[in-house]
Fold this protein.
Amino acid sequence: MMAPPPAPAVSGPLAVLDPTGQFAKRKKTSLWFTVSLLVVSVFILTIGLAATTRTENVTVGGYYPGIVLGFGSFLGIVGIHLVENRRQMLVASIVFISFGVVAAFCCAIVDGVFAARHIEPRPLHNKRCQFYSSGIGFLYDAYQTEVTCYTLNSKCQLKVKSNTCYCCDLYNCENSEQSSSYYEFLGVSSCQDVVHLYKLLWSSTVLNIIGLFLGIITAAILGAFKDMVPLSQIAFSAAPPPQILYNPAQQILTYTGFCPSAATISTYPSYPLPLQWYLLTRLNRRTGM
């Protein structure tokens, strides 16, 4: 009894897994990290948009990594479930996740530094900031008024627009350009919106840091998973090598067709050589040759 042929070898960078469920485990792990990255990306996008639309003069770009990471994780989820072209889809997912990781790193630094250096929450928490609104029918950028800010030694006039939260404690009457912190926030409904902005900036910073490390781990896991192929797929896709069985009886039958059989070979009588020459001469005379 002949032994079964060995499993066909796969050329290229494909790694074959044994049929003990390791491929399913790797697929489940990749899917779990990709879905987690998608959820974090949605939170980054939501918190970033909420922060950048809270005021008019404070621009926040922390939602950009959410777009890139979300698109990359979406491609990763699609690529994990594909049978054909899975490698190409996962490579595209890794590229987008890599760009998202770089964007998350930059935005985490920018938002964190901005929240730490340019927004002073103590006057807001101590209720030392005032909110000015001109009333219904006036836009915040179409109506201005002057308010008086008092310092330790003097007082000064500050022009504010409608729907503005301003803090005289943060305003430098001698030189307003030297103020390192924002002393007014435009387009808000109350000073409580500025407190929410401060919390949203730190939340966006933390989420971008989480997206940074989770994106690195997800890209590494997808990079290892894209070269794996289940053994069942190779068994159905790869053609087995031809088998040649040696059998002497079949070999004789196979080669008998190449040679004429003994019955087809004409038999000629054996004559002595002088007699053969004489018969050949007479035959030539009869034919006129």
Observations:
- The first strand starts at residue 15 and ends at 16.
- Residues 7-18, 251-258 have pLDDT under 50 and may be disordered.
- Residues 192-225 form the longest helix (34 residues).
